[in-house]
Amino acid sequence: MADGTVAARVLDLLAERGQTLAVAESLTGGLVAGELTGVPGASRSFRGSVTAYATALKRDVLGVDATLLAERGAVDPTVALQMAAGVRARMGADWGLATTGVAGPDAQDGQPVGTVFVAVSGPDRSEKVTALRLNGSRAEIRKESVRSVLELLLGELHGTVRAKDTEQNGGN
After folding, report:
1. Which of 8, 12, 20, 139 could form a cystine bridge with 93, CB 3.0-4.6 A?
2. Cα Dmax for the chain
3. pLDDT tens by residue, 10-26
C-alpha cells in the first residue's frame, strides 16, 4: 500500500539499532503490518500487530482507557497514543505505531470521513501523534494512513539519531 521503500528504510534503521516494532491498527485493518512484512528480512525487527477494529478490543487488548473511549470515542489523538503505547508494551517492542480514524463511507464518533490519527510511542517515553484530514475514497484514505504512520516513525527514528549525534559530538 505505502511506498515500500519507506517500510524498508524503517526496518533497516530498526535493525541497525537492534530495535523492534509492533503495530496497532484500526482503520487500516492490517495494511501497515502487511506493508512491513512485505519487506524481506522484516522479522529482524517486526514483532507483530493487533488489528483492533472494535472499540472494545482497543480497551481490552491494547489497554486504552475505558473512560476516554466512552467520552471521546475511538477516533481521537489520545486514543491513538494509548494504542501505540499499549501495543508496544504488550508485545515487548521498542517502538509502537497506531492508526485510528474514519475511512468511510459514514462518519464515526462525531468525526467526518477522512479524520485520521497516527501515533508513535518509543523509547524514553517519546510519543508523537499526527492528525490527518484526508480526502478520497476509502481505499485512498487507508493507503495514505499507512504511508503517514510509517513516515511518522521514520521521522522519529531520524530525530533520535540526530539527538544522539548531538550528545556524542557536543563539545566541552
Report:
1. 20
2. 58
3. 999 999 999 999 999 99
